[in-house]
């Protein structure tokens, strides 16, 4: 066996491929068996979770630690909640999206791991119960997206690989929804929402799945009602946005539908990409 060169090897170089996954689990404690089963099979290096629906103290840390993960959680009782989970330590953690000191929703956590700056994002929905833009919730969504874009621009100044991923509650194009007509008037397809998403792309971020996959009508979310999953009546709202430095080392991006078909599933399913670091 040829000896290794005489230099120090960092922990990142020992992992030539880093697998990063995002998943809105719709209650981590309720879906825990499914999440753990998927982790044991898929073995992501980094896992970004959304909609935990629990305070940080009630998060099942032990179960993830037993699988070798480090965990950062921003929780909230019954609503929202995000987590950043990694096989390597997570440093320089921030637990809220900058730009609004009065915003106490648990929707954002960011840190560095494997030499990559990653964030778990649970973007506001913006709709009311009739699927139309809400006069309070929708302006909050747009303001939140403006804050996200401002922060995303500052992150680019670091010139490091960046992955901003999670439930964006936004359908990028009509190719990403089973029925565009059904979503007329929705905050998910509203021009103001899509304009802000395009603004992030114009900053230099690449949407990982669409960069490598040209198929239309491939989804990451299916409603529990009307047998939506059985009929593949879904939408694609779980997105991974990569800085140029991350996009340059992107090798794959996939959507794993299998967990959505399990008993008591989340209405979302995992999306993951691989970076060659």
Give a written overview of the molecule:
It is a single chain. This protein has helices spanning 28-42, 61-65, 137-156, 191-203, 208-212, 244-247, and strands spanning 17-24, 46-50, 70-74, 82-86, 91-94, 108-113, 116-122, 162-167, 206-207, 221-222, 234-235, 238-242, 250-255, 271-276. Helices cover 22% and strands 25% of the residues. The radius of gyration is 18 Å and the shape is globular. With 277 residues, the protein is of the alpha+beta class. The strands form three sheets. It has a six-stranded mixed β-sheet. Helix 3 runs parallel beside helix 4 (191-203).
The proportion of residues forming helix, as a percent range, comes to 10-25%
How many helices in DSSP terms? 6
Structural class: alpha+beta
Order of helices and strands: EHEHEEEEEHEHEHEEEHEE
The gyration radius over C-alpha positions equals 18 Å
